[in-house]
């Protein structure tokens, strides 16, 4: 089977950046199967990149290489990492974007900020510093092309992760993608993602939501649900999305446009009284 490399970035498709990364990969491994998760992460939105990567990678074959480059600190002293996990390798900057590969128990609790954690049992993390596996010279502003793409390509050819550089014991992790439960039982969270259809994906997990009817409060509006499908409503409605989070949708239209909502905005999910 061809080696699989996935790409998640905030580069968009109007510039040559994604093509340059793919060119580097294919020059090293012409047989690589490159899959675009998305290149439309909002600029510098690391948490959104965690969500989309986390929503996609479990569906790939074991051993795939997953590259996530949303990197506001490119060229600074932040690390460049390869996380060798039981089901695949994850390559990206040490800014929390690789949290998508970590189990909830290894990440900070919901509602807390990013923090440095010890690499969890069953995983190994290595710095990407070995010049043999970098593209020289390394640009201070484009590690996606010069560090992460070549590292991923070499991994796809069977290079062991520990060949990329020294082992590291800690890494930066972002909190669990999970709304915080308040004392009154409501879930308090935020908007994680807005998809192409304008559906508003929150970090309130469906497994945590109250049973029965719910009310979702966001940007001064209250939206009721849940319904089973997008077609089961004619106005704004809440439902369980396919990734396991509560969404707000507007069938045949854009909920995000009607609400004027943005990623990061506050959301409350409570039982409908």
CATH class of the largest domain: Alpha Beta
- The total beta strand count reads 17
What Rg do the Cα atoms give?
A: 20 Å
Overall outline = elongated
Attribute tags:
Rossmann fold, 2 domains, 4 helices, 273 residues, Elongation Factor Tu (Ef-tu), domain 3, 15% helix, eight-stranded antiparallel beta sheet, seven-stranded mixed beta sheet, alpha+beta, single chain
Written account of the structure:
The chain is of the alpha+beta class and 273 residues long. The chain has 2 domains: 4-173, S-adenosyl-l-methionine hydroxide adenosyltransferase, N-terminal (Rossmann fold, 3-Layer(aba) Sandwich), CATH 3.40.50.10790; 180-271, Elongation Factor Tu (Ef-tu), domain 3 (Beta Barrel). 15% of the residues lie in helices and 31% in strands. It is built from 4 helices and 17 strands. The protein has helices spanning 17-28, 46-56, 143-156, 255-259; strands at 4-9, 33-38, 64-69, 80-85, 88-93, 115-118, 124-127, 167-168, 170-173, 180-181, 187-194, 200-205, 214-218, 221-225, 237-240, 245-249, 266-271. The strands form 3 sheets. Strands 10, 11, 12, 13, 14, 15, 16 and 17 form an 8-stranded antiparallel beta sheet that branches. A 7-stranded mixed beta sheet has the order 2-1-3-5-4-7-8, sandwiched between helices. Strand 15 (237-240) and strand 16 (245-249) form a beta hairpin. Helix 1 packs parallel to helix 3. It starts with a strand and ends with a strand. The mean pLDDT is 96.
């Amino acid at each position: 089977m061809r080696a699989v490399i996935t790409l998640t970035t905030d580069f968009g498709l109007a510039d040559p950046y994604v093509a340059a990364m793919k060119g580097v990969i294919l020059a090293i491994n012409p047989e690589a199967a490159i899959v675009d998760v998305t290149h439309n992460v909002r600029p510098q939105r690391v948490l959104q990149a965690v969500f989309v990567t986390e929503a996609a990678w479990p569906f790939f074959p074991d051993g795939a290489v997953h590259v996530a480059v949303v990197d506001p600190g490119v060229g600074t002293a932040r690390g460049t990492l390869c996380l060798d996990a039981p089901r695949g390798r994850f390559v990206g900057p040490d800014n929390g974007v690789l949290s998508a590969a970590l189990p909830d128990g290894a990440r900070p609790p919901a509602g807390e900020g990013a923090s440095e954690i010890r690499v969890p049992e069953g995983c190994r993390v290595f710095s990407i510093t070995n010049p043999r596996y970098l593209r020289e010279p390394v640009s201070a502003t484009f590690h996606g092309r010069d560090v992460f793409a070549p590292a991923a390509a070499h991994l796809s050819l069977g290079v062991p992760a520990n060949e990329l550089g020294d082992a590291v014991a800690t890494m930066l992790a972002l909190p669990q993608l999970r709304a915080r439960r308040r004392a009154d039982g409501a879930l308090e969270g935020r908007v994680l993602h807005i998809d192409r259809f304008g559906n508003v994906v929150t970090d309130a997990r469906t497994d945590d939501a109250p049973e029965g009817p719910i009310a979702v409060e966001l940007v001064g509006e209250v939206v009721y649900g849940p319904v089973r499908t997008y077609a089961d409503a004619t106005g704004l409605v809440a439902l369980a999305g396919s990734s396991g989070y509560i969404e707000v949708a507007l069938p045949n239209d854009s909920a995000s446009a009607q609400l004027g909502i943005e990623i990061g905005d506050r959301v409350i999910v409570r039982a409908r009284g």
